[in-house]
UniProtKB/TrEMBL annotation:
Catalytic activities: L-arginyl-[protein] + 2 S-adenosyl-L-methionine = N(omega),N(omega)'-dimethyl-L-arginyl-[protein] + 2 S-adenosyl-L-homocysteine + 2 H(+)
Keyword entries, A-Z: Chromatin regulator, Methyltransferase, S-adenosyl-L-methionine, Transcription, Transcription regulation, Transferase
The name this protein goes by in its record: Protein arginine N-methyltransferase
UniProt keyword Transcription, yes or no: yes
Residue stretches making up the PRMT5 oligomerisation domain: 459-622
Domain PRMT5 TIM barrel: 31-278
Amino acid sequence: MTPTIKTVRCALSVPTVVDISDAINNTIDNKFTYLICPLFHPRFKREHIAGGLKHQELPMSRSDLDLNAECWQNYVVGHLSKFYNCDSEDEMTRKNAIIGLSEELRFVAHLNLTNFVIPIRNGNIENLARTLNNNLMNKLALYNILIRVPMHMDRLNIEIENFPARPKCDTPWNWWQKMRTLCEESTRLGLALELTNDLPEDEEEIHRWFAEPVRMVIIPTSLFLTNKSGFPVLSKAHQKFINKFLSLDIDFVIEGANRHSEKGMSKYFEYLNFLYKNYQLSNNTTNTYKFTKGYEDCLQNPLQPLMDNLESQVYEVFEKDPIKYAQYKKAVAEALCDRVSDEEKTSKETVIMVVGAGRGPLVKAAMQAAADTERKVKLFAIEKNPNAINTLLNLKHSLWGDKVTIIAKDMRDWYPTEKADILVSELLGSIGDNELSPECLDGAQRLLKDDGISIPYRYRSFIAPVQSYKIYSEVKRCKDYEHPHEAPYVVLLNNHCRIDDEKFLFEFTHPNRAEKIDNNRYGKLDFQAKFDATLHGFGGYFDSHLYKDVDISITPSTHSPDMISWFPMFFPLKNPINIKKNDTITVHFWRCVSSKQVWYEWCVTSPSNSVIHNPNGRTYWIGLH
Ligand SMILES: C[S@@+](CC[C@H](N)C(=O)[O-])C[C@H]1O[C@@H](n2cnc3c(N)ncnc32)[C@H](O)[C@@H]1O
C-alpha cells in the first residue's frame, strides 16, 4: 500500500492586518494553513496607567464580528503586540505592559483562539512569567501560549521596542528554560522557535531543541536563497535542521516581506511542502515507520506477562518483528552446531525447551534452525497462558505433530523426566529484567542439563539522563496512579534528548549457578551533562546476548536496526532538575525483590537531591505470581 502523503502545515505571519477577512483570504489563496498576526493595532496602543484616558473611548481592537467563531479558531493565531515589555526597568512601562498583556490574553480567550505567540528577547522575564502563570492557572481559558525565541543569538540584533540589552551569559534556550520553570512546566506552554541565520555550532545544542515542546518553527523570508530558476530555497544547513523537525509534526511559519515577488508568497509554502513530501517518501516506507508511527511519546504501562495473560493482539505485534526471530534462529543454529558435530548429526538428538512460548514463533525459529543445520531435535513448548496454549495446540494438530510437546504450566512448576540441552526464552522487557526473566529463568534452570545452553545467556540494562518536556507533561497528565511520576512507562522516545550517553546499570546471566541467588540490585551512576539542560527523568534500555556474539539491543548506541518489539522505558522525576553543562548527575537505582513482587526505586543526589521515587513499590511493582 502506498503511504498517504500529507501536506505540510505552514502559516503566514504578518506584522499588521488592515482587513482580517481579506488577510485570511490572501493566506488561504497562497496555500498557507492559517494566519499569525497581532490582535491589537499599534494605533490603539492604550495607556492604562499614565494619561489613563488615551484611546480609552476607542475599541481596543477590531470587532470579533469580523470573523465567525470557527474562522477565528481555525485560521488565526494571535501575536502579542510588540510594544509591551512587562519587565521594563521603567515602572510605568512595566505596569502598563502587564495590564496590556492581560487585556490581550482575555481577548484571546474571548475569541477562543488555540494559540497565542509571545516573544521574549532576553532572560528578564519574571514579571512576564508571573502574569502568564496567573493566566495559565485559569482553567476556563483553553489557549496555549507559545513563547517565541530565536534559536540562536544572532537574531538579537532585531530591535524590539523597550527591550533592554541582553545579558551576555544567557542563551535563548536558558530564557525559555527559566520561563517554563517559573510557570511550573505548564502543559499549556509551548515554543515558537525562530530559525536564525546562524545555527548553533554545537550539534548537541541544536538537538536540545528537539526535547522541547516546539509547536512551530518561524522561518524569516530573509533566510531564503534563490535557486537557478528564481525560486526560494533554504541553505543545506537550514534544510537539515528543518528535516529534523519534520519528524515532530510541527507547524512552520513564513514571516517577512516577499523576496521573490515575481513568484508569489505561495512559493515559500510550496518549498516547505516539497521538503515535507521528500521527508515522507524517504521515511514513511521503512519497516520501522510502518510499525511505530503514531506511538511517538505515548506512555504505555509496561506489560506484566507473568502476572497477566497477554492478549492475541499483543502477540501479533511481537510476531511482526523482522529481526528478533531471525536472531534467535541464528543463535539456536549456532548452539546446535556447537552441541552436535557434523558426524553426529544423524544420530544425536538435541532437546530444546522453549519456555514462555507464547503463540509459537520461537518454536518455529528453533525448528527452522534445526532444518537449516540438519540437526535432529526434540522440542518442548512451555507456556502458562491458557489462551496461548490453545494456539500452540492448534499448531501442533495442524502442523507440528509429534515434533513438539506442549506443556501448559508455569515454567517454575514443571518437573520433567528429561532435561534440556538448550533452553530458549524471550521474557525480556524494555530494560531487560523488568518482565521478571531473572526470576522465571532461575526457577526453570533445573530443566537444563549441567552443560546446557541458555539462550539468552545474559542481558543488561542501561540508563541515560533524559530531557523531555513533552513526556514529563504526559506523565503529569496521567491519571492511572496517585503518584504518576513514580511509575516507569514504556514510550517510544521522540521529542527528547539525552543529556549524556547511556551507561550500564544491571546485569543478569543464565544459568545462574550461585549457591544463593539474589536478584536484588543496586547501582549508582555518574553522568556528565553535555550541555545546560533540564533533567526530566531517565531513559531505560537493554541488550541481550543470545548465544556467543549473536545479540539483540535497544540501547541507543547499539540498537539492532529495524527491531521494533521494544520501546525504551522512561523513569520520570517528580520535579525536573535544572542542570548546567559539565554538572555531574548522580543517580541511584534499586531493583527490589520480595516474595510477591519486584519493583524499582530511584533518586538523584547530584547536582541536587530528588526524593526517592516509588518507595516500597507503592506505585509500581511487578507481580511474581
Ligand atoms: C514476551 S512473551 C514472548 C512470547 C513468544 N516467545 C514470542 O517471542 O513471541 C513471554 C511469554 O512468556 C509467558 N510466560 C511468562 N512467564 C512464564 C512462566 N513463568 N511460565 C510459563 N510461561 C511464562 C507469557 O505468558 C508470554 O506468553
